[in-house]
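User: My collaborator sent over this chain with a note saying "see what the structure looks like." That's all I know about it. Can you take a look?
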Amino acid sequence: MDLSKIDALVAAAPGRIAAAVDLAALEQLETELVGRRSPIAELRRGLGQADPQDRPRLGQALKTATDALKGELDTARAVLEAAAEDALLEGDRVDVTLPAATPARGTHHLITQTMEEVADIFRSLGYQIESGPEIEIAHYNFDALNTPLSHPSRFESDTMYIEPFDGKAKTGGEELLLRTQTSPMQARYMESNPPPVYIVVPGRVFRTDTWDATHSPVFHQIEGLAVDTDITFGDLKGTLAHFALEFFGSSAKTRFMPNFFPFTEPSAEMHVWFNGGWLELLGCGMVDPNVFEAVGYDPQEVTGFAFGMGVERLAMVKHGIKDIRHLFENDLRILRQFR
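Assistant: Without extra context I'll predict from the sequence alone. Here is the result:
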C-alpha cells in the first residue's frame, strides 16, 4: 500500500481548504478529501489485502491523515459559518437611531374643517350647533320661511323634488324635496323652543345647479339665527363683523349692501375685504315678522336676525381656490395641502 498519496493529499489540503469561498465549496471539497470515494476511503478498503504485520501501522497512518484533514475542514467550516452569519446579521441590521416609521396621518376634508371653524367661532359667542333632515317638506323649506308659491326658488328648475313611490305625498299633502338651504331648521327649532334662540345650522344642501367652476348641485351651508328681545340690525352687523375678523384675520373689513330675501326684512348682502378686494360672502337680514308668526312667536315681543353662508365659498375665498370642483374630486394632491 502506497502511503505517499496520502502524504501528498494532506500536504495540499490546507491550500485547497483556504481557497473554498463558501460553505457549498467546502462541502464539495470535503467529499473529495474524506468522502466515500476519496483516496483515503479507497486505501482504507484495501487494508484487508495488506500484510497483517503492516495493517496496524497503515491503519494508524490513515486515521492520522483523516483526523488532520477533518480538523482542517472543521476549522474552515467554523470560519465560513461565522462569516455567513455576520453577513446575514448585517443584512438584517436595523439602525435604531433612525426615526420610527409612523403611519400617514389622516385629516378632515377642507369642507369639514371650514364648517368646524365657523361653528367654533359662533359657539364662542354662545350659539349652539343644530342639524336637521336633508329630505324636507315644502312647509319648512318654503312656507314657514315666508316664500310664496310664485317665488322662483320653488320651481323645479331650482329645487329637487322627490316623487313618492305610490304617487301620493307621505306628509299629509306636503311636497317632499331635498332641502335647498339649512334654513328649515330655523323654523323647526323655533317651533319646539321658546326664545331666546341663538343657533347655527351647518349641513349639506341641494339645488339643480350646473356643475361648473362656481356651482355644484350638492354643496354645504351654515345658517345662523338669533332671536331675543330688542335685537337690532346693529347686533347683526357687529356679530358678522366679528365673525369676519375671526375667520379671515385682523385685516378683514365688512360692508353691507341692500338686497331682498323672503324671510328677512330688511335684507342685505355682506361683503368682506380680503386679499386686496371686496368679495360677496353671505346673505343676512332681520327676521321677517311673518316667519315669527308661522312658528308661533309674537313679533311684538321678539326680534331677531338670520344669515346664511356657503361653506365652499368661505373655503375658496380664504384659501384662494378658483374651482369648486377641486373640493369634490378627492384629488389627494389638493386635499393634502390642507392637513
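A starting point for your reply to your collaborator: The first helix runs from residue 4 to 18.
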